[in-house]
Amino acid sequence: MKTVGFCTLGCKVNTYESEYLKEQFKKAGYQIRDYHLVCDIYVINTCTVTNQSDRKSRKMIRYCRKLNQKAIIIAMGCFVEANPDFEEDADILIGNKGKSKILEYLENYQKTKKKIVVPSQEKTVFEDMFLTSFLGRTRAFVKIQDGCENFCTYCIIPYVRGQCRSKDFDSVIKEIKELVAHGYKEVVLTGIHTGHYGVDNEHSFAELLSEICKIEGLLRLRISSIEVTELKDDFLKVLKENPKIVNHLHIPLQAGCDATLKRMGRHYTLDFFQQKLDQLRQIRPEIAITTDVIVGFPGEREEDFEETLETVKKFGFMKVHVFPFSLRKNTAAEKLDGHITEHEKKERVRRLMYLSQTCERKYLETFVGKTVEVLVEYKKEGYSYGHTSNYMKVALNGNVRENTLVPVKITGFKDDTTLEGEKIQEVCEV
User: Fold this and answer.
1) In which element (H, E) is residue 190 found?
2) What is the pLDDT along the chain (430 residues), one digit of tens a residue?
3) What is the secondary structure of 140-176 as a DSSP string?
4) Boundary (domain end) residue, out of 213, 246, 279
5) Same domain, residue pair 56 and 83
6) pTM, entire model
7) Domain of 29: which CATH number?
8) Containing domain of residue 257, as a range?
9) Radius of gyration of the chain (CA)
């Protein structure tokens, strides 16, 4: 039996696509192995969102080649799409079109031994994939959307993922029902611009959420990320009426300064963002809001960065994912003046990450002594670990069945970012 090792970089969309491909390889009689081991075939699902992502994509392709000089190396995804001339150490190159045909390309290569480069197309339809399980996971991802048309000035993703396109409405419902039937209690909706679902069909994102919440046996519905401009009245109504939608939203801010937001091509102001946060907290007072912030964007003055720090405090985020600005070729930001030194970017990253840690600790402390529900995901060193609806990580002392939703009284902290609690009783088992 031939072995296949998967290395998946980047976003949850890549994770979903890799899981689908693993399932296809298994059905075809291949054995899935850890990519750190010697395999007959390696699949590297690449990322290109930053320069560091590019470097890591190249590194992993070369790493797999060193593990086995005779292996067939398949590189696919955003890095390949952005670098169509890249051929080093890869035998099959697939951008963001044709991933579902990977076994056909592999079979062709095995017959001819000739390098395969799958041509990219600027316009494409949604490449449908369908999963029934997620290996080694208690929550399942479902890709409902692909592409982005925001064209923020710093971002290369619209160029490598293409225009917005949505998965068929009925197919989404069918896939989630299948996953629930296989025991999954929580589903995460993911996409490149998830909240833009439905722009190319007759359904809205809010309509999709409402229909998913009707699925019997599904306990939690999570959204991987949503833009603040998509928190419209119909979405807020669905959020209010459906407790299955978890108490956590990831809403990218990107900058806490209106001048910087404008240069980034973000189509909102801080006042608008604040209004939407207020609306969310009226519906869900304890909702956890996480965000992304880019520091060191061209033209960002020290006072602009200081404003970002104050904005983060004011908005009350649970956690901030901090990224130094990474220049991507052929984006509008490449031509902007006032580029920040790497040293200054690193210093600003450090300062904002420290603030993020402070915000996270402050939020978590409010739950000590309270009872929350934890979906147990794995066990380690005598503890059972899982997450709450608002995505707090909790450690329970003892052996608790995985994929079980249990009420837990929070007693304190196990470490800086993990709460510790005592199980009260099981309320939902596999």
Assistant:
1) strand 186-190
2) 899 999 999 999 999 999 999 999 999 999 999 999 999 999 999 999 999 999 999 999 999 999 999 999 999 999 999 987 777 789 999 999 889 999 999 999 999 999 999 877 556 778 888 888 776 678 899 999 999 999 999 999 999 998 999 999 999 999 999 999 999 999 999 999 999 999 888 899 999 999 999 999 999 999 999 999 999 999 999 999 999 999 999 999 999 999 999 999 999 999 999 999 999 999 999 999 999 999 999 999 999 999 999 999 999 999 999 999 999 988 999 999 999 999 999 999 999 999 999 999 999 999 999 999 999 999 999 999 999 999 999 999 888 999 999 999 999 999 999 999 999 865 444 4
3) EEEE-EE------TT--HHHHH-S-EE--HHHHHHHH
4) 246
5) yes
6) 0.92
7) 3.40.50.12160
8) 252-366
9) 22
Residue 427, SS3 per DSSP: coil
227 lies in the same domain as 340: no
Specify the residue for token string 């609690």.
421
Strand partners, 409: 371, 422
- Here the tokens at position 243 are 């407790």
Q: Which of 323, 350, 366 is the last residue of a domain?
A: 366
User: Residue for token digits 């104050």?
Assistant: 310
